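A quick aside before the break. I want you to see a complete sequence-to-structure record at least once, exactly as it would be stored in a machine-readable document. Don't worry about memorizing anything.
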Amino acid sequence: MQSSNELKCLYFSLGVIKQATREFSDQNLLGEDGFGDIYRGNISINDYDYVVAVKRFHKESEIMFRYEIDRLSPFHHRNIISLLGYCEEEYEKILVYELLPNGSLYDYLLSGKHRVRNLTVAKRLEICIETANGLSYLHFGTRFIHGDVNTCNIFLDDNLVAKLLAPPFTSCLRGLIASPKQESDNLCYHSLTNKQIIDKNTQR
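That is the input. The structure line, written in tokens, reads:
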């Protein structure tokens, strides 16, 4: 394992990745996103054990691998999900992200296994503020527009701190940023009330 100063993330050998995912075991498979399969793994970094998401790209998705690693490796903020490192060896192209144990905010709020652990109003406000901090870092600190803020892209760590997933399908900021007030109001309303948002423009 070595650091890449240019990419600002770690390089993992294929051996480390295989050990972390138990040779890409089906039992470790979390799903896929259209560009590759995603596995759960455990990797030690600086004597700390991380639970990670290992994205193994399909052979035809090399361009997206390059795009994700170049675009996402500079992002370092407590409210942004981190790209921890990558592997490019023996025709394998792999990215390693931190994996958050409590899943997405959507799952935490709405799935049956979490309904018994409802978030307090104060905690939901904290999540909204933490999400806004992550967005502020992306939009103003890195000039990177997120473009897809919803409860499926907000994740909670083991301390219920919100971390925003920065998707590759966003655009670089050129010119002025449009006011995000309406989206922020909708996000806060959804998180605070647990109710679906109804677009009044679709109602006749």
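Two observations worth writing down. The chain has two domains: 2-98, 105-202. Residues 91 and 126 are 43 Å apart (CA to CA). We'll return to this after the break.
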